[in-house]
Amino acid sequence: MGPPESLTAAVEPLSGREQTVLSYLPTMLTTAEIASEMFVSVNTVKTHLKSIYRKLDVARRRDAVRRARALHLL
């Protein structure tokens, strides 16, 4: 793996709402609880999660948190 700068350049930027959802991922909140905190539907959160996972090239919440921390997004 190369330096963090090259990793960041390879990642498509997250939208503001995706960044907000990402900030909740290290917590113990469920998807429904995140939706409630953000005043959006569960489906909206799930859509943001799919996009975050795609952009970070991960398949699970734990992996997304780990990758986001490595990229200094969290």
Describe the protein in words.
With 74 residues, the protein is mainly α. Helices cover 66% and strands 0% of the residues. The protein has helices spanning 4-10, 16-24, 31-38, 42-56, 61-70. The longest helix is centred in the middle third of the chain and has 15 residues, at 42-56.
Summarize the structure.
Pfam families: GerE. With 74 residues, the chain is mostly helical.
Q: Which H/E pattern describes the elements?
A: HHHHH
Mean pLDDT, all residues: 90
In the CATH hierarchy, the third-tier topology is known as Arc Repressor Mutant, subunit A
* Structural category: mainly alpha
Cα(first) to Cα(last) distance is: 19 Å
Q: Return the domain count.
A: 1
Beta-strand residue percentage: under 5%
Low-confidence segments, ≥5 residues, pLDDT <50? none
What is the general shape? Answer: globular
CATH H-level name... which superfamily?
Answer: Winged helix-like DNA-binding domain superfamily/Winged helix DNA-binding domain
Query: What is the level-2 CATH architecture name?
Result: Orthogonal Bundle
- Percent of residues in helices comes to 55-70%
How many whole angstroms does the radius of gyration measure? 12 Å
Report the count of strand segments. 0
Profile the largest sheet: none
**SS field, number of helical segments:** 5
Quick one: CATH class?
Answer: Mainly Alpha
Pfam family, one: GerE
GO molecular function: DNA binding
InterPro entries: Sig_transdc_resp-reg_C-effctor, Tscrpt_reg_LuxR_C, WH-like_DNA-bd_sf
Domain HTH luxR-type: 7-72
